[in-house]
Amino acid sequence: MTHHHDDDGGDGISRRHALECMIWAGTGVLWTISGGVPVSLNLLGAAQAAEAMATGFTFLQISDSHIGFDKAANPHAIDTLKEAMGKIQALPQKPAFLIHTGDITHLSKPAQFDNAAQIIGGAGFDVHYVPGEHDLIDEGNGQAYLERYGKGTKGAGWYSFDQNGVHFVALVNVVNLKAGGLGNLGAEQLAWLADDLKAVSASTPVVVFAHIPLWAVYPEWGWGTDDAAQALGLLKRFGSVTVLNGHIHQIMQKVEGNVTFHTARSTAFPQPAPGTAASPGPMTVPAGQLRSLLGTSRVMVKQGGQDLAIIDSTLADA
Amino acid sequence: MICIRLPARHMAAMLTAFALTAATSQPLSAADAPMVKIENFAFTPPVLTIKPGTTVTFRNDDDIPHLVVANDSSFRSKALDTGDTYEFTFTKAGDFAYFCGLHPHMQGRITVAP
Is the minimum CB–CB distance between A96 and chain B shorter than 8 Å? Predict the structure, then answer.
């Protein structure tokens, strides 16, 4: 540790620069496994974050790129995705892989999928996708997504994999939506999940990712998943469960027992905080503010004012 | 049921024509206003009462796509981008509840009554 202090003068600037990149990469939330528990780096203090970056396994969550979106809230969603990927590529320690928590495209059009694949794939990372509802509105009701990203997946595109001692589960909660309902996992996927988790020991950290939040963020706007409780029930025996979602285009966090919930920002456009607007539609802000709402410390501070303490306690436990 | 797609201006011409015919025989009246606007993640009006044979136009005025689906699957639009419309002709009497296939908390109902 003394060595670190001695080096601060020389490393300070580069570390600070790296942290700025990570904070922007809240597009882009960089995750690390610390003591077997995933923690969000931009919730750590600067020194902890720098240390976590220098060692350990990181992966990065990107979400809601909405390629094809060109409305007032961001006429250039393709450019902000390019910027996000540029920031990720510039990280001094490369994440092991990316996860994309859905709404890759805005309207599931072939050109939109092509552009997204070119920009995201061009960065050279492995990317694990789940679909958002915007990715399944082609003529074939999801065929276009499955043809591109469905290889090796089950059902509507769910799957799991293991990396660095962490069990990752990718769930799809944007198909067969019911009138008046929220996100939906469905009986078939829940049965698969129960079977998938059988072989995983309770001490294995589990990361679950899906597009729509798996907790009731704001059901009045559809921000929740009807049968999430059944999935979470299957995850109760695990010591560490982290649930990563998108869909709501802002950071929200909650810790409940062994489960940490987190939603990522969009790379395309912000959405209003729950109940603060007439609808959850794209939020148009002065042009100079857009990038700060796609991921900077200011929004983090605002979110953190409510929930950071809870998350911190979890990090302390780790 | 039959789904008929017509440009909006044809609809307007038809409505004008109907309005000019005798009140006893016309299937539509000005009060029917067979248009459901989709704005702020809501169907307006949420309940629309029409006569059999009426074509209802759904128009998306949001910056986010929506998709109109009948609860009983009797009709389903494509994803409607901003400004896109979907038209469906209701031939049978009854209550037809529908929702947004992308945002299912959005719900509406078409009541078809002679």
Answer: no
pLDDT digits (tens, 9 = 90+) for A79-127: 999 988 888 888 777 888 899 999 999 999 999 999 999 999 998 999 9
Taking CB atoms and an 8 Å limit, are B62 and A181 in contact across chains?
no
Question: A141: domain CATH number?
Answer: 3.60.21.10
Residues 53-92 of A with CB under 8 A from B: 71-73
What is the total count of domains within chain A?
1
Domain that holds residue B48: 8-21+38-112
Per-residue pLDDT tens for A36-65? Answer: 555 565 544 555 555 555 555 778 889 999
Of A193, A183, A184, nearest to A248 by C-alpha is A183
Alpha helical stretches, state H, chain A? 2-24, 46-54, 77-89, 110-121, 143-149, 187-198, 228-234, 290-293, 297-317
- Indicate the pTM of the whole model: 0.79
User: Which chain A residues contact residue B98 at CB under 8 A?
Assistant: 179
**How far is residue A24 CA from its own chain's centroid?**
14
B80 touches chain A (CB under 8 A): no
How many domains are there within chain B?
1
Whole domain around residue A23: which residue ranges? 14-317
Does residue A189 form part of some domain?
yes
Nearest-neighbour CA in chain B from A141: distance (Å): 9
ipTM: 0.77
